[in-house]
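Hi team,

As requested, here is the filled-out complex form for the zinc ion run. I kept the field names the same as last time so the parser does not choke. Let me know if anything looks off before we queue the next batch.

— J.
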Amino acid sequence: MQGINKDRLTESLALMGQIGATANGGVYRLALTDEDRDARNLFREWCEDAGMTVRIDDFGNMYGRRAGSEDLPPVMLGSHLDSVPFGGRYDGPVGVLTALEVVRTLNDQGIVTKHPIDIVNWSNEEGARFLPGLFGSTAALGTRAAEEALNATDEAGCSFRDELVRIGYAGDKANRPTDARAYLEVHIEQGPVLEAEDYPVGLVRGIQGQFWREVTVKGRAGHAGANPMDSRADALVAASRMVLGIRELALQCAGYGVATVGKMSVAPGAMNIVPAKVDFTIDARCVLAEDLTMLENGVVDVVEQAAAAEGVTVEISGDESYPTILFDTEVMGMIREAMTAEGLPVRELWSGGGHDAGVAALQWPAGMIFVRSKDGLSHAEAEYSSPEDIAAAANVLLRAAVGLAG
Ligand SMILES: [Zn+2]
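And here is what came back:
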């Protein structure tokens, strides 16, 4: 079997990158906008040109099918074509278009697999327009209520359902995927590890577990000059202790663990008033189940102890927690073999971000291949992965997909 056509793949990525292109080389292609519709139309045209039939489900997820020689569940390959505001050209399209390149390559060589191959473009993966992320895959694979998804609205009050109809991508519930031999996704790493260690591609072990919380600290406002230090209930001083305590918790993880306070607001927010109220968010991620439990409980302890020490009150809200998802051993083995056959060194790593492959992994054997990201950048216009690295990942995908599809 010959490898994929790097020039064709590079050109397709460039063409896709023109849809919703920004002045600084990125894309602005939020889900179910006119730009997303144009990207979908182009993808559909390419699938049909490659001899595939395209199905659309009731969440607008698109599935291009290359028939197999036997009546078996498909091997699914894919990712997403939507972007965040001022996002990059690679996050998502790399997965969809390497999958398309696999099909084009099989067509060139007249190779017929036993299992069909389905290429999928999941709707609104980013969740940048309709919350939350992984929108299309979680709705179609039943981990999220269908009605709730269809009724979701964006900031302007437009519903997901209406916008799907408007762009012509409201499909049929019967087209949701029911079974798959395996699910494979190529995605940019979005982090610095592969570049730092000089690996073109990476074998993803799984998706880190994570949870989010929102914390409200209430103290007492007062004149910044007239209130002696020992008389204060300063919400920001208390919150600062909490932030440092949360960092310590992450450092105590037995395995890999990170915790981030990425958003904070201070009220009333004036130079000469003791802060009365602080709201902040916590995003914590780790690999081991014991660490997830430790972090969840630890956050409560840290926050309550700091509140008591500073004489303020505190409320923690949010209960979203997601356990670590492990990718399938057989699929990972297939990817590892493919990397070795391509002469690529194998570097295993965890995904710090959520991906549709993690949703698929709850139902089917799944795996992911990461592509090196320049400067670890993503969700930014300067996001970049080289044509050579993307082609290397596509060749790994080709071998692994053919291995799994027979
Ligand atoms: Zn993505």
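Two things worth flagging: Residues 289-310 form the longest helix (22 residues). Residues 151 and 167 are 16 Å apart (CA to CA).

Thanks,
J.
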